[in-house]
User: Which sequence fits this backbone?
């Protein structure tokens, strides 16, 4: 039953990069109380067109999803979605981020790296229901919000989380900037539990 | 402090509904919203193409805190009015601390086709004048071809085809390039034919005319534009002594345009220009002349009230062909008078002023002007008129101020 053989680890180690392609970046995983968080200092999304728009003084909304699945391309068994609005102070040349999903908060005066780290650190998935010895994959998907999605996500009633999940179940649009990272296979029993609330960023 | 307040507002438990969906508060998430808008810049080539209402709303942003939503709405309106691909916005540091400058930029559609009617007019003494153009826009390039029949603008009625190519960005937004080719056939009023036979001051009649005109425009400053180029006109005189003549001229125009829309209710517009067409033997021209034209136009608008004064002066030295000569008594200059009664061949000197008051769609105007030739006395004529104008549509009745029987002129038209 849930026994991970040496061959399984070997196949997973070689197979995952081939399956995912080179686009996906590797993530670190940490256990913060009963929440899984990711650590990805090499994961940068304030780049390219999004960064250009920000430097032009516009705000850019990013949609993020953190999901757990038993295998690399299997459907997610747990997920968290969120929306972050980033803007760039043209006078102070610092970034500001507002989280507008289930949890809310705003931070200002950040460098681009710190702003990215803050967004990723706010994404958590609870571990309840996960067997400690069962391997799983954790995937981070991030997209710059398309104007056509905005109407469905942001309404008079607030953020529509169902619509956010639907967006991630469809491929990104051709012109849409997107980033992806993955970690796994990971077992809860291998993760060192940190003191709750000891967040970075 | 402000951000703490925002966070407090949006994270309050009262914002959460039973379906676990937070209610969005009207909070500005852009960190630049704490800065005051110092100026709003719109590309000069599109400024005149956007509605007065939109220009006013853009100006209203000045002095306000930067507001993403308001700016997005105005950019969307601008995109719709101009029918362009995108209107992007840049927020830059202002000159004063904590102030920002908003710069709007327009990206035209990669390919676009449209049909336009740049002129449609019925004039009770001149008949119909119409122009129809088909336009193709590819990036910064615009190709247009059209048909025209105009008995209003010149002493002649000309009808034929015209084609134009324009490049709106020749290396820089400040440099435009244009090539135009026209081919027309002429019809002449009996008065003009008779006057032509009796006068040698003006060039004779012709039955067809072709024009090729390359022109470059350079935006020297935000308000000043210089255009220069050449016009190569070739025309065939009527039978039996048919021959081809040419009037090749160097062209230069200097144009000043300034719009002042401040905080008050008044909006002021000032336009001034000088143009010169100098035909010379060096360009292998059969005619040698210099045609000068000065224009000044000032307009002030307050709410639904608008007052415009326009003054034009013109001088031709040398002997110029008929299409270069000045004409009064048209649908736009000294309205109410018949141009063939004033001077069927046109004049080499002109002085003209028009005062126009509008309230909403109602229009009242007073025109005065004189047209004459060298050695003649200038006789000032006046006319009055009333009309309605709405969205490019115009209907007007104009009366010449003179003794004896007065025949009003009726005009109805659009887009000119």
Assistant:
């Amino acid at each position: 039953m849930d026994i991970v053989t040496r061959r399984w680890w070997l196949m997973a180690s070689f197979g995952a990069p081939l399956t995912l392609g080179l686009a996906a970046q590797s993530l670190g995983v940490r256990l913060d109380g009963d929440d899984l968080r990711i650590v990805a200092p090499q994961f940068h999304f304030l780049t390219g067109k999004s960064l250009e728009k920000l430097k032009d003084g516009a705000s850019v909304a990013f949609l993020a999803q953190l999901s757990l699945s038993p295998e690399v391309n299997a459907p997610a068994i747990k997920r968290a979605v969120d929306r972050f609005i980033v803007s760039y102070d043209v006078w102070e040349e610092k970034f500001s981020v507002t989280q507008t999903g289930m949890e809310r908060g705003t931070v200002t005066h950040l460098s681009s790296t710190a702003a990215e780290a803050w967004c990723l650190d706010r994404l958590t998935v609870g571990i309840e229901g996960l067997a400690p010895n069962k391997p799983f994959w954790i995937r981070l998907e991030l997209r710059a919000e398309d104007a056509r999605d905005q109407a469905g996500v942001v309404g008079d009633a607030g953020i529509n989380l169902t619509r956010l999940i639907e967006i991630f179940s469809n491929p990104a649009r051709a012109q849409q900037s997107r980033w992806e990272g993955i970690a796994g296979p990971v077992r809860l029993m291998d993760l060192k539990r940190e003191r709750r609330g000891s967040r970075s960023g | 402090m402000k951000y703490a307040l925002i966070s407090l507002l949006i994270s309050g438990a009262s914002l959460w509904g039973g379906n676990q969906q937070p209610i969005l508060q009207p909070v500005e998430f852009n960190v630049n919203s704490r800065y005051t808008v110092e100026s709003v810049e719109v590309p000069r080539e599109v400024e005149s193409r956007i509605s007065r209402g939109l220009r006013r709303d853009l100006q209203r942003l000045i002095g306000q805190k930067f507001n993403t939503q308001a700016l997005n709405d105005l950019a969307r309106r601008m995109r719709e009015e101009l029918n362009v691909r995108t209107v992007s916005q840049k927020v830059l540091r202002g000159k004063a601390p904590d102030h920002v400058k908003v710069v709007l930029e327009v990206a035209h559609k990669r390919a676009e086709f449209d049909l336009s009617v740049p002129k449609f007019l019925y004039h009770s003494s001149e008949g119909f004048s119409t122009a129809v153009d088909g336009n193709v826009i590819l990036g910064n390039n615009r190709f247009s071809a059209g048909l025209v029949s105009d008995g209003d603008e010149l002493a002649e009625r000309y009808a034929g085809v015209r084609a134009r190519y324009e490049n709106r960005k020749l290396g820089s937004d400040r440099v435009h390039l244009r090539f135009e080719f026209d081919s027309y056939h002429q019809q002449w009023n009996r008065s003009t034919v008779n006057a032509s036979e009796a006068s040698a001051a003006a060039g004779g009649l012709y039955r067809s005319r072709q024009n090729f005109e390359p022109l470059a425009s350079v935006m020297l400053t935000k308000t000043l534009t210089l255009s220069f180029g050449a016009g190569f006109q070739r025309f065939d005189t009527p039978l039996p002594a048919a021959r081809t003549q040419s009037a090749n001229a160097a062209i230069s125009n200097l144009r000043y345009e300034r719009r002042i829309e401040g905080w008050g209710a008044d909006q002021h517009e000032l336009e001034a220009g000088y143009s010169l067409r100098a035909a010379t033997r060096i360009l292998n021209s059969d005619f040698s002349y210099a045609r000068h034209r000065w224009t000044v136009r000032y307009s002030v608008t307050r709410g639904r009230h608008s007052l415009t004064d326009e003054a034009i002066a013109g001088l031709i030295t040398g002997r110029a062909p008929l299409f270069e000569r000045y004409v009064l008594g048209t649908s736009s200059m000294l309205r109410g008078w018949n141009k063939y009664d004033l001077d069927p061949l046109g004049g080499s000197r002109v002085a003209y002023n028009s005062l126009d008051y509008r309230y909403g769609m109602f229009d009242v105007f007073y025109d005065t002007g004189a047209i004459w030739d060298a050695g003649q006395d200038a006789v000032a004529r006046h006319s009055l008129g009333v009309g309605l104008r709405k969205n490019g549509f115009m209907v007007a009745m104009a009366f010449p101020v003179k003794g004896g029987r007065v025949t009003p002129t009726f005009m109805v038209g659009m887009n000119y």
In short: The radius of gyration of chain A is 17 Å. The interface with chain B takes residues 56-59, 85, 87-91, 95-96, 98, 100, 102-106, 108, 154-161 of chain A (CB under 8 Å). The first strand of chain A starts at residue 25 and ends at 26.
